[in-house]
Q: What sequence folds into this?
């Protein structure tokens, strides 16, 4: 589904990714862990097409399409979802309006029929229920006045409505208390743990991986993946730290 080969990327004039290679197949959940500054968010933003993150070398293909050769909105329509560490607020725009326009613009890009208002409301209620959000919250302006946990739950509702093939989630566990973490983890499992979908989880901590169990764990250090293993690797990182693992690799 996603194949990254020898990816190099810069932010400004600083090279952050220095030859990263990774492959995700349908039905797989991969976790990327690593210290601050290792390049985790840069990887997510480069794949999502965020301005300011320039790929200087290497390749990334998504379902056989050159991901780096298409615009961010085309990547989204192709089925890529990027979850941000700090979801932004959009004053004056209701969640429902934002999500309906987003979904129908993607459907139009794919040549699919747009959802009617009634069809969309049914879908929104179904996905909001997975994240224990009521419709009153979805009528509010996007993330305005939301707590950190509410913003992350709202973002997972967005993911459920857009129904991507590949979700890249950048520190979705950041700022979540225990209850919110369980709700978000359960939502990720319900929406994305399917044989035709894949997830790339970027996290610092084991606690999210207790809720969303990965098939593979990768350690990212200095712009490269230096070690890959199963879920036990995350526990080893908790016990020994990134530096010890990177040096051993």
A:
């Amino acid at each position: 589904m996603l194949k990254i080969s020898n990816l190099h990327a810069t932010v400004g004039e600083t090279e952050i990714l220095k030859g990263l290679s990774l492959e995700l197949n349908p039905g797989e959940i991969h976790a990327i862990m690593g210290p601050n500054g290792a390049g985790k968010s840069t990887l997510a933003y480069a794949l999502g097409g965020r301005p300011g993150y320039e790929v200087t070398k290497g390749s990334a293909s998504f379902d056989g399409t050159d991901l780096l050769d298409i615009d961010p909105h085309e990547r989204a329509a192709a089925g890529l979802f990027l979850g941000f560490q700090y979801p932004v607020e959009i004053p004056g725009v209701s969640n429902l309006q934002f999500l309906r326009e987003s979904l129908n613009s993607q459907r139009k890009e794919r040549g699919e029929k747009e959802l009617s208002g009634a069809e969309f409301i049914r879908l929104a209620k179904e996905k909001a229920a997975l994240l224990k959000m009521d419709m009153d919250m979805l009528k509010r302006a996007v993330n305005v006045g939301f707590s950190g946990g509410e913003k992350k739950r709202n973002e997972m509702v967005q993911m459920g409505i857009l129904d991507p093939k590949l979700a890249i989630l950048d520190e979705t566990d950041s700022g979540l208390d225990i209850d919110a973490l369980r709700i978000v983890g359960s939502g990720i499992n319900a929406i994305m743990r399917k044989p035709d979908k894949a997830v790339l989880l970027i996290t610092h901590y084991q606690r999210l991986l207790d809720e969303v169990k990965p098939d593979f764990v990768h350690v990212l250090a200095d712009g490269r993946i230096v070690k890959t293993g199963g879920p036990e690797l995350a526990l080893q990182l908790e016990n020994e730290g990134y530096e010890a693992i990177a040096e051993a690799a």
Summary: The longest helix spans residues 95-109. The first strand starts at residue 2 and ends at 11.
